[in-house]
Write a structure and sequence with these properties.
The complex is a heterodimer. Helices cover 28% and strands 24% of the residues of chain A. By secondary structure, chain A is of the alpha+beta class. A seven-stranded mixed β-sheet of chain A has the order 3-5-1-12-9-10-11. In chain A, helix 18 links the parallel strand 27 and strand 28. In chain A, helix 15 runs parallel beside helix 16 and helix 18 packs across helix 19. Chain A is globular, with a radius of gyration of 28 Å. Chain B is α+β, with helices and mostly antiparallel strands. Chain B has a five-stranded antiparallel β-sheet with strand order 4-5-10-6-7. In chain B, a hairpin with a 2-residue loop joins strand 6 and strand 7. Classes of the chains: A alpha+beta, B alpha+beta. Chains A and B meet through helix 3 and helix 20 of A and helix 12 of B.
């Protein structure tokens, strides 16, 4: 990378409002569902009402006779179906059952598509699905992961319910635990969650001759194009995927879905464009779910609190099939259980289990929230066991700021961090000591409303990912990102990015980066993305990778533009290329800024090419593909104070302080927004959200009246601040922020609840910690006399 | 989801609406703000052939002071009820409760009459109407009739309204001097239905609770009065202890459901705790 910089008025760090918001907030944009094509037809899916059943017959003939119906298909009409892709076969002997887009002879979760009706409008399509006659022979559902692994359990697939076992051991674990003065073991439950992006999934597919265009509300237009080409027999060059403005994803649109594939196949069959937009209920049933793990975690420590070793044994619910990265999600957590702590040994094992439920896959944080939750929860338990302040215990074990770069027991190299600074700032903002004093007073007075303090000193790995590392983990694609900078004839800039935004504000942040790099006004830059004919190469947006990978690709492309412009400027100035400097948007001879040309002048000279250096292409446009050398490791300290009404069980968050270190900040407003949204999503897991299946495998939480997504009215003021320890592994010093809040906040909240109730003899409340669950925990503790001094003391 | 096909008519008067309903028979439904019916239509849980939209009938909107009583038009929106000065003065319980229902968008569309005629036991207003001793005014082909709140709610989502009757308004007695009120709503998110709600009215005299009326939300298939607690509190000393003791009987005779958001034992417990809290506020303790 060059050292040319634009010192004049740096855009990096400026709290700009987002340039994309005007069209997004005023509805002037095209969401996928807004797209109307001539002759457009509408699809509606007939979905399985059984968690597990043999399909004995599907008859679509009556549906074909319904008003407005153009066609109706069952699996038989699609012939031999290729499987929806799983791009992360985590072990050599992983069980990867076939996953046809439309169920053939067996259904394995409620909501699985068994037929599709195509009609002139949505209403007619919805009416006609009732006329499709499907006969099922029910089979026993498999709903509990632990029971699924028992001998004699009904099987989800022929090959059994165990999908894979993935072990990872570092150091001498036996030695760490042998004769350890303190060993604490707990089992935690990561409930199943449903990502609820504001925009539901929607697809439009349209064929013209042998070319297909697929519009989809997706995070991954490039990967989707690749998958359609690689697995479904459509030549890749004939596929165009467009992700128009996309209203959120949180991982749920990091997927190649049955509906996308079927839209493409159905449109080809009927010879007309087709559209499908899910309802919220359909989405709750069939958008991939998140989390769903049992975590057994065991920690060994010395009496003085020093950690010796850690053992983690997971059961991870795959659901009925393996989707794009289903098996890999829990393993992203494998490297994060040791978190910010030093220890001698670590062992991790994850067993993937099939059940007759919707498949799980990436959901904001993907593996890392689970890991952070378990380690931060058990650190509090260990502190209790040792009679230490939980913050003090953490401090005793965390990596000191002078010890970076530090290779963790999980083999990651943390390049930078300063846990002391973030924690000190958080304590100060929180009033830690005052709240501890109030907590004590409430305990003494037996206040029915008890106070608890929760801590989460977290880190995470983002910037997915160095291709060689993910390759060694059997991940199916690389981790690079691509960017192109086009210098237009008038000196304006078009940026093409492979990072496909779905609400993150890339157009603003990328403009800020380019404005600084090229010394052009922020307003002169336009960012293009999300269309594979515009942005030909990309690995898309997930895992907090856009800035840390895509942003760095952009820096690389800018550097190439500058190098090309220097050559042109040197020619025009009759100077040596080596004597050229680029400052404040001008190319000039070193030491003589008066003698030079603006980038805009060079752009025009390149456009006309009348007077151009011999043998040089008349173009400043530059492309760069960047493969990161390491992950990045944002960190922070989150402190939460909860009030727990011991009469009703209601938990109220009284104050929440988050001090995050995401490295260098491009746009503080965007960072603030990500931190707020992230924290709230983590609070939602702690207190509100859970996908609940009944004993027959029916999803009970199919609407937002039952799947409780909190709104602003339910949430506390969030006090946020930052420390800034730049990443040393990329030229911007950035670390990523898309998932940090979600990873940090869940354990902070639950730790606070348990802290409030601990004198009653309570050491866990399963998530979500609803009032009823808190009340039952209190009731059961008081029934068994678990508290040493009774309730309230 | 999207609704199945239905016919739609928007009558210009109550009589016209009644005729349209009578013509539509069992498969006709009244729609006002649509906040209860539209979700049922969209989830395809309800398949009416005809929707009679009474939303344009201005005569059914507003609050009238009738001296001893207030008349509240069925089309008065929840938001209007929340802000109406006459209600605030003479029927504060309704105004206070209105502010706790769903969210601003729903409150601006949803109507008092619609919420009562829908008769969802998890809705807040049925229990409030029960506690208020409200009288429902219905108009049908045979003219107008009054139905006491205690006789109005027959079963889950079922009222005493005949298929061709329209709820035109409710009449509530003004709260006299000495009366206090409180609706305690316990829900999981601000927009969610109550797991349990307690609507309490209490008249305080000489340091005692002279009388009280307590309506319970979501403690059975219909809104119910906590009669045992009402009797226990009548004449009791206005003290936390006495109110708590009376509230211990709040769940007597109820049949609370067990569902995703709360077991019946938890609901019983909440009813007792919330009744004590509602009574404390209502009687100024």
């Amino acid at each position: 990378m060059t050292t040319d910089t634009q010192a004049a008025a740096p855009e990096l760090g400026k709290a700009r409002t987002r340039k994309e918001d005007a069209r997004l907030l005023t509805g002037q944009t095209n969401w996928t569902d807004n797209i109307v094509l001539p002759g457009l037809l509408h699809m509606a899916f007939v979905r399985s009402p059984f968690a597990h059943a043999r399909i004995t017959s599907v008859d679509v003939s009556a549906a074909k006779d319904m008003p407005g119906v153009i066609a109706a298909f069952s699996a038989a009409d699609f012939g031999e179906q290729a499987s929806l892709p799983c791009g992360w076969p985590v072990t050599e002997d992983i069980v990867m059952p076939p996953h046809p887009p439309m169920a053939t002879d067996e259904v394995r979760y409620v909501g699985e598509a068994v037929a599709v009706v195509i009609a002139r409008d949505r209403y007619e399509a919805a009416d006609a699905i009732a006329a499709v006659d499907v006969n099922y022979e029910p089979l026993p559902p498999v709903l509990d992961m632990r029971a699924a692994l028992e001998e004699g359990s009904p099987k989800v697939h022929e090959a059994g319910n165990k999908c894979y076992v993935w072990p990872f051991v570092q150091g001498d674990v036996d030695a760490a635990f042998r004769d350890a003065p303190v060993v604490v073991e707990r089992t935690y439950r990561q409930q199943r969650l449903i990502p609820c992006a504001m925009e539901p999934r929607a697809v439009v597919a349209s064929w013209v001759a042998d070319e297909v265009t697929l519009w989809s509300s997706t995070q991954i237009p490039h990967v989707l194009r690749f998958a359609l080409g690689a697995f479904f027999g459509i030549p890749e060059q004939n596929i165009r995927v467009i992700a128009p403005d996309v209203g959120g994803g949180f991982g749920s649109k990091l997927q190649v879905t049955a509906e996308e594939v079927l839209a493409v196949l159905v449109s080809r069959k009927v010879g007309r464009p087709v559209k499908w937009t899910e309802s919220r209920s359909e989405g709750n049933l069939t958008i991939h779910h998140g989390r769903d793990q049992w975590q057994r975690i065991k920690v060994a420590a010395d009496r003085d609190g020093r950690l010796r070793g850690l053992e983690v044994d997971l059961l991870a619910d795959m659901g009925a099939y393996l989707m794009l990265v289903t098996p890999g999600v829990p393993l992203l957590g494998a490297f994060m259980y040791p978190a910010i702590y030093k220890m001698d040994a670590y062992s991790f094992k994850c067993t993937g289990v099939f059940t007759t439920k919707m498949p799980t896959d990436a959901y904001r944080g993907a593996g890392r929230p689970e890991a952070t939750f378990a380690i931060e929860r058990i650190m509090d338990e260990l502190a209790t066991e040792l009679g230490m302040d939980p913050l003090e215990l953490r401090e005793r074990n965390w990596i000191k700021h002078e010890e970076f770069p530090y290779t963790t027991i999980a083999t990651l190299v943390y390049d930078s961090g300063n846990y002391e600074a973030a924690t000190a700032r958080a304590k100060e903002l929180f009033g830690y000591d005052e709240l501890r004093a109030e907590q004590k007073a409430r305990r003494v007075s037996g206040d029915p409303v008890q106070l608890g303090i929760g801590i989460s000193t977290f880190t995470e790995m983002c910037g997915l990912a160095p291709s060689r590392v993910v390759g060694s983990l059997r991940y199916g694609v690389g981790g690079w990102e691509n960017a192109t900078v086009r210098v237009l004839a008038t000196g304006k800039i078009e940026v093409v990015t492979g990072s496909s935004a779905h609400g993150q504000g890339h157009e603003t942040a990328w403009s800020q980066i380019v404005a600084d790099k090229l010394g052009v006004p922020f307003e002169d830059i336009r960012v293009l993305h999300g269309d594979t004919q515009v942005s030909a190469k990309g690995m898309d947006t997930y895992g907090s990778r856009s800035l840390t990978v895509g942003g760095i690709a952009l820096v690389g492309a800018c550097d190439k533009v500058i190098a090309k412009a220097k050559k042109v400027a040197a020619h025009l100035l009759e100077a040596s290329e080596n004597d050229m400097e680029f400052t404040a948007g001008r190319l000039h001879v070193r030491g003589d800024p008066g003698q030079g040309h603006s980038l805009q002048e060079i752009a025009l000279a390149t456009f006309t090419a009348h007077n151009f250096p011999d043998g040089t292409e008349p173009s400043l446009d530059s492309e760069h593909t960047y493969d990161p050398e390491n992950f990045s490791f944002p960190h922070g300290t989150h402190l939460c104070a909860t009030e727990v009404d011991t009469e009703t069980g209601r938990v109220t968050i009284r104050s929440y302080v988050a001090v995050d270190d995401v490295g260098k900040v491009v746009n503080p407003l965007i960072v603030e927004g990500q931190v707020h949204g992230g924290i709230v999503q983590g609070i939602a897991q702690a207190l509100y959200e859970e996908a609940v299946y009944d004993d027959d495998g029916n999803l009970l939480t199919t609407t937002l009246a039952d799947y409780l997504v909190p709104s602003a009215a339910d949430l506390p003021h969030l006090t946020t601040d930052r420390t800034e320890t730049p990443a040393t592994t990329n030229p911007l010093g950035v670390k990523g922020v898309g998932e940090a809040g979600t990873i940090a906040s869940t354990p902070a909240v639950v730790n606070a609840i348990v802290d409030a109730l601990r004198p009653m003899g309570i050491d866990d409340v399963p998530m979500p910690c609803t009032p009823e669950r808190v009340w039952r925990a209190i009731k059961s503790a008081s029934d068994t006399g678990a508290g040493q001094n009774g309730g309230g003391q | 989801m999207i609704p199945a096909k239905f016919e739609y008519t928007k009558p210009g008067s109550v009589d016209e609406a009644v005729r349209a309903l009578a013509g539509g028979g069992e498969d006709a439904k009244v729609i006002a703000g649509g906040q209860s019916l539209l979700p049922l239509l969209r989830l395809r849980l309800s398949f009416p052939d005809l929707l009679v939209d009474v939303g344009g009938l201005g005569e059914l909107r507003g609050v009238r002071d009738e001296g001893e009583t207030l008349w509240i038009g069925a089309l008065t929106t929840i938001d209007e009820a929340q802000r109406d000065p006459v209600l605030a003065q003479h029927c504060g319980l309704l105004a206070q409760t209105a502010a706790l229902i769903a969210d601003p968008a729903v409150r601006h569309r949803g109507t008092i009459g619609g919420a009562l005629a829908h008769a969802d036991p998890a809705g807040d207003l049925p229990a409030v109407a029960t506690a208020l001793d409200a009288t429902m005014i219905a108009r049908g082909p045979g003219g107008e009739r009054a139905i006491g709140a205690g006789d109005f709610f027959l079963d889950y989502l079922t009222t005493a309204l005949a298929p061709s009757e329209i709820l035109t308004g409710i009449r509530v007695p003004k709260l006299g001097p000495g009366w206090g009120y409180r609706y305690e709503k316990f829900n999981l998110t601000a927009q969610a239905w109550a797991i349990v709600g307690v609507a309490a009215l209490a008249r305080r005299a000489d340091g005692h609770v002279a009388e009280a009326r307590i309506g319970l939300t979501n403690m059975g298939l219909v809104p119910v009065r906590a009669q045992a607690a009402e009797q226990a509190v009548a004449g009791a000393e206005a003290s936390t202890q006495a109110l708590r003791a009376a509230a211990e009987r709040a769940d007597e005779g109820t049949q609370p459901p067990s569902d995703l958001h709360g077991g019946s034992d938890y609901r019983r417990h909440l009813a007792r705790v919330l009744t004590a809290r509602a009574l404390a506020v209502a009687s100024g303790v």
